[in-house]
Amino acid sequence: MKKKLLVSCLVIAFALTAGVGLAQAKKLRVVGSWNSLTLFKNFEKPFWTEVVPKELGLKTSMTSLGQVKLKGPAVMRQMSMGVFDVVHTVADYVVADSPALAGLDLPALATDLKLAKKVVEAYRPVMAKYLEKDFDVKLLSVIPYPAQVLFSSEGIKGLGDLKGKKIRASGWTTSEFVTALGATGVTLSFSEVPQALQRGVVDCAVTGSLSGYSAGWGDVSKFLYPLPVGGWDYVIGTMSMTTWKSLGKEKQDKLMKLIKEKLEAPAWKVTERETEEGVACLGNGPCPHGRTYGLTIIPVSEADKKKAYEVLVDSVLPAWSQKVSPEVVKEWNETIGKVVGLTAK
User: Fold this and answer.
1) What is the pLDDT of residue 131?
2) Rounded distance, CA 127 to CA 123, Å?
3) How far is Cα 318 from Cα 313, in angstroms, rounded to an integer?
4) Peptide bond into 286 cis (omega under 30)
5) Domains of the chain
6) 166-168 and 204-208 as β-strands: parallel, antiparallel, unpaired?
7) Which listed site, 20, 81, 120, 282, has its alpha carbon 20 to 30 Å from 4?
8) How confident is the model over 50-64, as pLDDT tens digits?
9) Hey, what's the signal peptide range on this chain (predicted)?
10) Is beta strand 137-144 parallel, antiparallel or unpaired with respect to 204-208?
């Protein structure tokens, strides 16, 4: 009997410690966002390949969205299958499987970073809840790309000229926004856009100013409208819940502290600067990143700012609220709604 009891205790002890041992022994397989952009190069990659091994003693291997070539929510689903441990991806890419996430970044919702930060902090608990429910992952970080502006191969003067145009939207809420303006929203991955603009598959495309600059969109565009019609295109960092639990509380707490101090805070700090630098580099400079493209920068009118807000209230917010449950609408109203003074019905 004593021998059986001892064996039972050993089995229980192994079960409790196996997860921690696994996390310490294996490499964390990390997928970063787009490797051509500064968020990956300057923040995600150094954090996971230098900071985490040094501070937590965890081995890591790093790849990116472009290298794994998995579209939409597929890369998130791979975590539940044990293929990856950590994934950084654009929230808009996964809203088909988790529509509550789309409430974070509605077009014209937060036109400056100060308000965007308040929106993110208010909605973070809601996002964490639905990411765990829909993908069984832990939310680690939320970081904005530069403001999502409009690149165009055709001459436009403002939002009124988008009617009849084919526009690559950065997400389905942006597609809803341009549709309300009489345009047609087209779904294309980030890497497919330059060729689509060049061949006339689309007339315009929405992405971050410096993101578009870094990816060569200036070569296939002639005009830039710097109104943030696509919001901020937040990148969410997530970890498999199995991997998260295997870390143990001490490492969990230290990892979250490191993410806040070494990843989120510095990345947020440069976003506003990169928005301005992207516009300057796409126009006539000065450009700290290299060549300028000489695109015509279209002045943003007060009338268009007002029009964008009206489209948000009359079209985008109602369309989103119809795609989610009454519970999600209630949670949005109690968080983001209070921050921006809007009520979704």
Assistant:
1) 97
2) 6
3) 7
4) yes
5) 20-145+233-271 (3.40.190.170), 148-231+276-340 (3.40.190.170)
6) parallel
7) 20
8) 999 999 999 999 999
9) none
10) unpaired
